[in-house]
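pipeline stage [seq->struct] | target=Dienelactone hydrolase | organism=Herbiconiux aconitum | residues=222
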Amino acid sequence: MSTELLWTGPEGGPVLVLAPGAGAAMDSAWMNRFCELLAERGIRTARFEFAYMAARRTGTRKPAPRADLVLDEYRSAVEAVVSLAGAPVAIGGKSFGGRVASMVADELHAAGSVSALVCLGYPFHPPGRPERLRTEHLSALRVPTLICQGTRDPFGTRAEVSSYALSPAIRIHWLEDGEHEFKPRVKISGHTHEQHLATAVDAVAAFVVSYDGGGESQGDVA
């Protein structure tokens, strides 16, 4: 399976593989900005799209499939990145992309391909359906994991997530009043969207660097 990769950031920097959310392209404005900010901090990102999204570029509109149906696509993307950049690499994604990454992370970590996992706005449940949890595999996750999440994300608020049984390998970096794109209400939170993006990027960059080469982390994330 051939994987088209979009690289951003300095050659030789720690590598983070990222897949976009279910309705977004790998070069969406949000993904572009996040990867630009990571590049400024020395992180090299390798983005890719699942086949259904790549098909939309040629006019074939396909709905997003179930997460379990694209696991092999994520595995192939990691294989392609590792063949070019070496192993291990960190993996993750925005929303759906992060969820898929979380479903293959332990397997790839055990194989030595992956050092850590980064989820940007994890979709703990569909909006308005808090009973439909997507957390079962997260209780036993072994790979070091960082989730960046807005406190009012409709896919999982801070109040909701605090009640979930999550693995001790998972750290959550909360963005006050942020929604799914980390955007806060400025008058309520005192923060801007750009400030929250920068804060999230700082946390991700420090986390990826701490596990670059498969080493142990040097500190917790708030």
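stage status: PASS
auto-comment: The radius of gyration is 16 Å. Residues 6-214 form a domain with the Rossmann fold fold (CATH 3.40.50.1820).
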